[in-house]
Design brief:
The chain has 177 residues and is an alpha+beta fold. The chain has a single domain, classed as Bifunctional nuclease domain (Roll), CATH 3.10.690. 34% of the residues lie in helices and 32% in strands. It has helices at 38-49, 58-69, 105-115, 123-129, 139-156; strands at 2-11, 18-24, 30-36, 72-82, 85-94, 97-103, 119-121, 131-132. It has an eight-stranded mixed β-sheet with strand order 6-5-4-7-1-2-3-8. α1 packs parallel to α3 (105-115) and α2 packs across α3 (105-115).
Length: 177
Amino acid sequence: MKQVEFFGMQLDPGTGDVAMVLREREQPRRVVSIMIGGLEAVSIAAALNGDEPPRPLTHDLMVSLLTATGARVDAVEVHELRDGAFLAELAVSGPVGDVRLDSRPSDAIALALRVDAPMYMAESLLDEVGLVIPELPDEEQIEEEIEEFRARLDEIGVDAFTDEDSHDGPGDHAPPA
């Protein structure tokens, strides 16, 4: 199992379908999109935003049940893809011992986000359906490259870009014979 993190949600504007995106925490940082229902998307968004609805959502109720019984979620494991559906388990521990509960990934993630439980995905799944998205440079990297470019321009000088023999505009020269 490789540790993953919640990376975001995508909305297909044409169909209205929602996918949650999980990303591998370590290199190569593969991402996996998992289609979820609208209610699960709302619950995940509420957990991410720290929203407390006037009445508890199902996943909030699950947290209350865990707390009231002295149990805790130790991990979420997305372990299989069967017939186009991802399968997950909750690893829960408490007074009755350690148990594993079958779960939809969306419910498991919605709960994990509320209780700050680690999330994992089978490496075989990451190999099968994970995509590597190139990392975009951060602002510091961009600034460093701009400074390097400016330094190279200063070394070359402006004269390297002008033709003193011609006063015509660029592209007005006849090709060499």
